[in-house]
Amino acid sequence: MIQLYGSPLSGNTHKVRMALAFLGLPWDERLTDAAARQSDAFAALTPMRQIPLFIDGDVILRDSQAILACLAARHRPGDWDGHTPEERGAIHVWLSHAANEIANGPATLRLARKFDAVIVEDHAQAVTARILPVVEARIEDHDWLAGGRMTIADLAASPYLALMGDAGIDVAAWPAIHAWTRRIAALPGFPAMPGWPAAPTTTEGAA
Ligand SMILES: N[C@@H](CCC(=O)N[C@@H](CS)C(=O)NCC(=O)O)C(=O)O
N or C: less crowded end of the chain, CB within 10 Å? Predict the structure, then answer.
């Protein structure tokens, strides 16, 4: 069975958790807290000592974006990872934003607010101010980040935007992003994550 080293409040872990749940794949989640990440046993599995870490038989893969790409290629090729070269390119734009601006902006602000991490606040605020309007503009008139359906772009980019309230960001200022994260929460099999906005109710959906 697939093993996923992660932690309940890790947005990066949640990217993989969502993919596994939407694919209907069983997995065994191994709680890997800060102490466990520093252990020699964990370092032997991944030199970065970071979660998420995905293990399936002989395959050991780190980095949430890389794990999503592997799962898409295995289980939803040409769908979750793009139908055409252009769509693939568009998906990779968002994988890069997830690993760069979203990680260094909203995710970093959340680390400080929720976990007391020491950060360079001005930099995190500046990166956040740059990326949020870009996501909001895309998602204002599209349901999904790339292509006309959910792809790994949405799985990679959404957790730290769904959790922006934890980062001290005013959710009301970003209504399209908020609605998109709720759309993701409404997908069949969505695994719960503390702080993720709830799926729309049936009444809202009918309105
Ligand atoms: N690029 C990696 C970043 C992973 C990451 O930053 N994980 C955090 C938890 S969400 C972690 O393990 N932090 C501890 C550390 O960096 O030492 C990914 O996308 O998976």
Answer: C
